[in-house]
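Quick one:
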Amino acid sequence: MSQEQLWVIAYDSPSNKRRRKLAKLLEGYGERLQWSVFECRLQPHQLRRLRQLLACIATAEDSVRIWAVPQRPLPPSPPEIQAGSTPMPAAQAASASSSSRVAMGSCRRRANSR
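Output:
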């Protein structure tokens, strides 16, 4: 028995006609997440067929990207940190989060050495 795999497929084309054809094709295989991004749960034979059909529509000036989504759960995202009423940008939040871990680690070491 074949195992289904979750795939994210994104495309871009300067041609409205090809963009419509790509969208119509992908709508038959999965769920639209954004205008040019689809999530498809496919068996290996379905993925092979979809790749063939995409190759028939897309040209060298188009971009079609296909990513496998890992079956194992991903680690949780860091919580959003807010200062006042304005959310902190993600890059700053990540930086603040890692520096606070360092600071907390050094606090624990000092507390344990007493």
